[in-house]
Amino acid sequence: EAQNHDKGSLTSEEVSSGMTAVSAMIILGLFSIFFGSQLAFFQTRISLRLGSALRGSVLERGLKVRACQEHAEAVGQGEPGSQQEAPSVYNVISFDVGPNIDIIWILLGLWIFPFQFISVLLLLFHQVKYAVVPGLVV
What is the model's pLDDT at position 9? Predict the structure, then answer.
């Protein structure tokens, strides 16, 4: 009350603009909740598809090599049990493919970070001018 001694009460226009801002913030919050969940679902779906594709290609390659070696042994060009036998790749596919899929999301985050950082800095500078500098130092 000590700070409002020069002004009267709020006008209806100020109240309506404040309520509009509050409503917009609530709508923005709800939108970000739904958008975030859909984005996470989409990212999971893409990761599953990429994982399946990479696992399938690795498994297919391993089976082709093994089939060629078995054919060579049947024809008599290779010795059974030799060191040229294809390794069993099925058990290690998940360990090899997982990091390859995760690196895609890391690379996407790396190239978009400068754009996000600069846009946030510009918006902060537009609102608080040089008061943004101490925030960067901390």
Answer: 80
